[in-house]
Write a structure and sequence with these properties.
Jelly Rolls; alpha+beta; 198 residues; 7 helices; globular; Arc Repressor Mutant, subunit A; DNA-binding
C-alpha cells in the first residue's frame, strides 16, 4: 500500500513476529501503523467459551489496525501472526505527518478502509440471512477479489483453512466441510489434493 521507502523515510522500523505471536491485544491503545512485508496476520476475538472469531486476515503489502489508530480508541480485537511474519511499524505521530504531507496516500488509506467496511457490511448480511454454502462461496469470492489468491490451471487456490473459513463466516468446521463437499458436487468448487479451488 505505502512504499517501504516512504514509510522508512518517516521513521518506520522492520520487526519480525513468530508464528502465533501476539502483535497487539484487544483493549490496548494503538501506537503504530502496521504494514506487512511478508507473512499472514489475523485479527480475532474469543467468546466466553474460547471460540475464536476472525475479524479479518491480512497478507503481504496490506495494513491492519488503522481504525482505532485514527480514533484513538482501544483495539477491539487481537492481532496474531498466523505464520512467521515481518512488518513495518510506524509511530502514530509519524504516520499522521506522512498522511498530511502526502494527500495521495491519504486517499489510498481511505479507499482501503472503505473496502474493508464494505466487506464487513456484505459479510454481516450474509452471515445473518444465508445458508452455509452461500456464505462460504461469498467469502471465497471476496478472497479472490481482494486477497490476490493465485490462479492456475485448476482455478483460484482458496488460501483459507477450513477452520479460518468457519471463523470468518460464523460456521462450525464440520458445517464448512459439508458445505465445501456440497459445492464441489454442484461444480462450484474443485478439491485437488485436499486444496480447494474456485
Amino acid at each position: 500500500m505505502i512504499t517501504a521507502e516512504l514509510l522508512e523515510k518517516y521513521g518506520a522500523i522492520k520487526k519480525s513476529f513468530n508464528k502465533n505471536e501476539i502483535i497487539f491485544e484487544e483493549g490496548n491503545l494503538p501506537a503504530h501503523y502496521y504494514q506487512i512485508i511478508s507473512g499472514e496476520i489475523k485479527m480475532c476475538n474469543y467468546n466466553d467459551d474460547g471460540r475464536e472469531f476472525i475479524q479479518g486476515i491480512f497478507y503481504k503489502n496490506q495494513s491492519f489496525g488503522e481504525p482505532p489508530l485514527f480514533l484513538n480508541q482501544k483495539y477491539p480485537a487481537n492481532s496474531i501472526a498466523v505464520e512467521d511474519s515481518e512488518m513495518l511499524l510506524l509511530p502514530k505521530s509519524n504516520f499522521m505527518k506522512l498522511l498530511e504531507e502526502n494527500p495521495a496516500i491519504s486517499i489510498k488509506i481511505i479507499e482501503n478502509l472503505a473496502q474493508r467496511l464494505y466487506y464487513k457490511s456484505v459479510m454481516a448480511a450474509e452471515i445473518s440471512t444465508h445458508e452455509p454454502e452461500h456464505r462460504v462461496l461469498k467469502l471465497m469470492d471476496h478472497g479472490i477479489a481482494y486477497f490476490n489468491f493465485q490462479k492456475d490451471k485448476n482455478g483460484y487456490l482458496i488460501n483459507f483453512t477450513r477452520q479460518q473459513i468457519g471463523d470468518l463466516t460464523g460456521l462450525r468446521v464440520e458445517t464448512v466441510i459439508r458445505a465445501i463437499k456440497a459445492l464441489e458436487k454442484k461444480g462450484e468448487l474443485r478439491i485437488i489434493n485436499r486444496k480447494v479451488y474456485r
